[in-house]
Amino acid sequence: NAKAIANPIENELDIDEITDIYIEHNVHPDDREEFKAVATFSAMCAALKEKSSFTYHFRILRDNKISYCYMKCARNGSASSFDKVIMAFALEDYSVKLHNAVKSHNHMSQNQRVSRIYEERFAEALENNEFVVWYQPKFDAVTEKIVGAEALLRWQTPNGMIPPGDFLDVFEGDGLIQILDKYVFRQVCQLQRRRLDKNLPLIPISVNMSRKSLFTPDIVETYKDIADSYGIDTKYIPIEITESLALANKQIKPIADKFISVGFELQMDDFGSGESALNGLNMMHFTVVKLDKSLIDFIGQKNGNLILDYAMALGKELGVKLVAEGVETLKQLDFLRAHHCDFIQGYYFSKPLPLDEFEAKLDA
Ligand code: C2E
Ligand code: CA
Ligand code: CA
Fold this sequence. Notes:
Low-confidence stretches: 1-15, 44-102
Number of strands: 10
Number of helices: 17
Distance between the termini: 77 Å
Order of helices and strands: HHHHHHHEEEHHEHHEHHEEHHEHEEH
Radius of gyration: 28 Å
Structural class: alpha/beta
Strand content: 5-15%
Shape: globular
Bound molecules: ligand C2E, calcium ion
C-alpha cells in the first residue's frame, strides 16, 4: 500500500494517480493542495533523516504551516490517513529516491521554464541586437581621469532589460555564452576601430571571459584573429578572468600564457570573493588584480581594513596594479587612496553607461 502511495509521487506527482489517492484517502478537495504538500514535504523529511521516528516528522510538520492542513484534516476525519501516508513515506527505504525525484522535479520545472524561454529567444535576440554592451569607466585614483573601462553585457528585451546575472548562468549551461563573450569582444573591437578612425585616443576596455570560452579550442587564435581583423592592438582589450576560475584550475595556466604571448593583458576579477589563498596570485601573470566589491564593502570595519591592507600590500609586492570594484562612497575612496590603490571602478564615479553616454564622458 505504501508503495502504491509513494510511486505516483516518484513519477513526478502524476495528477491522475494522486487524484486516486485523494479519493482513496477521502481527502476533501479543498485540502488536496496541502495534502500534496504534506506528502512531498514528509518525503523530503524522510530523506533528510531516513531512519528517524515518526515523532520527528510530526514535529517538523507541526512546526510548519503544513500543520494547518493536518489539523484541518483531523477535523474532517481524514487525519489517520495522513498518519499512514506520512508513516509510509518515513519508513519506506526508497524515500531518498522519492526525495530526489521531487527535488529534481521542482528544480527542473522552474529552471527549465526560464532556460527554455531564454534559449528560444536567443537567436532572435542576437539578430535583433537585443544584446548590447555597456561600459563602466575605470578611473585613476589620483588624477580621477578615465584610464580604462569594462565592457558589460545587457539584454534589452522588448519587455525591459535583463541584467547579466539573470541570464548568463542559463547560457553558460547551454554553451551559448561563448557566442556572447565573442560578441562583446567584437563590439569592443569595433568601438576601438571607430575611435582610431576618428583619431581619438584609445584606452584599454576589458572584456569578461567565462569558463566555457576559456576552454574553447583555439580561443586565443580566435580572439587574436578578430582583433587583427579590426587592426586593434590586443593590449587595448584586457581579459578579465575570475579569481575562482584562475586559481582553481591548473589547465588554465597554458591558456593564460598563450593569451599573454599574443599581447593580451590578463586581469584577475573578483579577487577576494572566494576562499582561494592570496598566494595563488603568484601562479599566474596577471597584470591587474580587481579587488572584489565584498572587500570594499568592509572598509571601515576593523577586520575589513586589515584584510584589504594585506591584500593590497601583497599586490604591490607582486607588482600588479590594483583596481577597486564597487566603490560607492567617499570614505571608501579615501581609504583606497591612502593605501595607494591604482584604479577605481564603482558607482561613486560612474555606473556602467550605454555606448553614447560612455563616449561622451570619455571625450568630455
Ligand atoms: P563583474 O565582472 O564583477 O562586473 C562588475 C559588476 O559590478 C557589474 O555588474 C557592475 O555593474 C557592478 N558594479 C560596478 N560598480 C558598482 C558599485 O559601485 N555598486 C554596485 N552595487 N555594483 C557595481 P553587472 O553589469 O550586472 O554584471 C554582473 C556580472 O555579469 C559581471 O560581474 C560579470 O561576471 C558578468 N558579465 C557581464 N558581462 C559579461 C560578459 O560579456 N561575459 C561574461 N562571461 N560575463 C559577463
Ligand atoms: Ca569583470
Ligand atoms: Ca568583478
